[in-house]
Amino acid sequence: MEPLRAVAGATPEQLILGLDTFGDVTINAAGDRISHAQVLRDVVAQAELADRLGVDAITLGEHHRDDFALSSPEIALAAIAGRTERILLGTGVTVLSSDDPVRVYERFATLDAVSSGRAEVILGRGSFIESFSLFGYDLGDYDTLFSEKLDLFARLRTEGPITWSGKHRASLADQEVFPKTEQPEGVRAWIGVGGSPGSVTRSVRMGIPMMLAIIGGDPARFAPFARLYRDTQRELGREAMPLGVHSPGHVAATDAEARDQLWPHFETNRNRIGAERGWPRTTRSEFEREADSGSLYVGSPETVAQRIAATVRTLAADRFDLKYANGTMPHELLMRSIELYATEVIPRVRQLLADSSS
Fold first, then answer.
1. How crowded is the C-beta side of 260, counted as CA atoms within 13 Å?
2. In this predicted structure, what is the pLDDT of residue 95?
3. How far is it, in rounded angstroms, from Cα 306 to Cα 318?
4. Inter-residue contact 162 to 111 (CB < 8 Å)
5. Are 157 and 185 within 8 A, CB to CB?
6. CB 319 within 8 A of CB 346
7. Taking each helix axis from N to C terminus, what angle separates 73-81 and 36-53, rounded to the nearest 10 degrees?
8. What's the DSSP call for residue 158?
9. Are 246 and 323 in contact (CB under 8 A)?
């Protein structure tokens, strides 16, 4: 079977509809925090279910803190590869700034081989900074680390001999990286973008598609970035590149049930991160506003499908990934959300988009 592939100008049937998790550390039915090891086993089970039910992609986000279990997502993806057949396997994101591009490329080329061409990497700087001190990097180099390492990664995708030099890594002199992939463009990659114009245009210059991380506010606010992305492609003479969107959400039988299930875990997660960053505590009214008209895709299958379809139309997106793991929400609720997303939301999104384009 030929692996799925995101394409620019995707039809409703070509649209990639995926899922994303950071391996959020969850609680059990008694309210007790479960181990990192069990979270990782649960992530594999969640990916297996998603594949069995026809979800297009699963991405695992790298973090190095105690509320997320996925510090080495490629290892979990390799485990998932052996238990799945069709689903795309990616990271969302790999923190390239604090890693070695050569090692990243080798790991994903290996994953691509063992998964028969299903590997993808979303490259990012990371919105959390724990990895910098952990691996000995200076936060003062935050921007230059990413720019330099992204440049090297982009060159590695040619899979030929590389001569390269920079400030933050040893130089390469006519050297090659192994294994080689079976993909014409090398390891398939995206660049995670939070919403700065410079990041948008850099994605196009590098020839690596953009994945917009929209985690708050009206998705329509990002329409100028989608336009800039496509305008820059035309200006630089690039072939059309696909556009992806990543946002959080949760699916349950009804809108009220979905919101009531999500709220306590959303609150715990948001307030924990907010305390670290100096944010005020969140409120139920803020949560409700985000669920009504922001970038929190929470509700019944019909509600979530309508909102995803609206975002896809507004941004002309070719991929949408729902971050289904939300703080401490138990595994059983996550599995039910995945089931509803796969069996009801995905076909309904495709139908809505087909109806609006006919």
1. 5
2. 98
3. 16
4. no
5. yes
6. no
7. 40
8. T
9. yes
